[in-house]
Amino acid sequence: LLGALAGTVSVYGYVYSSPALESALSLYDTCGVGNLHGYPSVLGALVSIGLVGLHSDEPFLSSSGSSQSSSMMMAQLLAILGTLTVSIVGGLVSGFIIMMMDPYKMKEEEEEYEALLKYENES
Questions:
Q1: What is the mean pLDDT of residues 22-48?
Q2: What's the pTM?
């Protein structure tokens, strides 16, 4: 059930989220990593927090009579926030590095390379 829901979230991300992010913020997820891995993993982490809360009376969540469910839920939430922070900062840094490169020079080099391949294929 959770896998089907994660797949649905992924598809809705491709259909609605990607175009919205592209038009509103000029954010392009060219490989669909956010939709394929990001949204479903956040969903799974949130469900795991809920399941720990629902089953806080289980023996494996308590040691010596005290419940650890709230600390486990907080640890999972902090892990989600940490993962999102690292991924967003990493994306911003890599995007900044790419923007620092001269796209026109890269385009010229690509055209020269394609011309060379075409020349070699013709001979």
A1: 85
A2: 0.64
Q: Any idea of the CA torsion for 16, 17, 23, 26, to the nearest 10 degrees?
A: -160
Over residues 40-59, the mean pLDDT reads 83
93 Cα distance to chain centroid: 15
Per-residue burial over 21-49, b = 16 or more CB atoms within 10 Å of its CB, e = otherwise = eeeeeeeebeeeebbbebbbebbbbeebb
**H helical segments located in the chain:** 2-12, 18-25, 33, 39-54, 69-100, 103-122
Written as one letter, the residue type at 75 is A
Q: Which residues contact 49 (CB under 8 A, 6 or more apart)?
A: 73, 76, 77
Cα Rg, the chain, nearest whole Å = 23
Place of tokens 């089907």: 4
Q: How far apart are CA 97 and CA 101, in angstroms?
A: 7
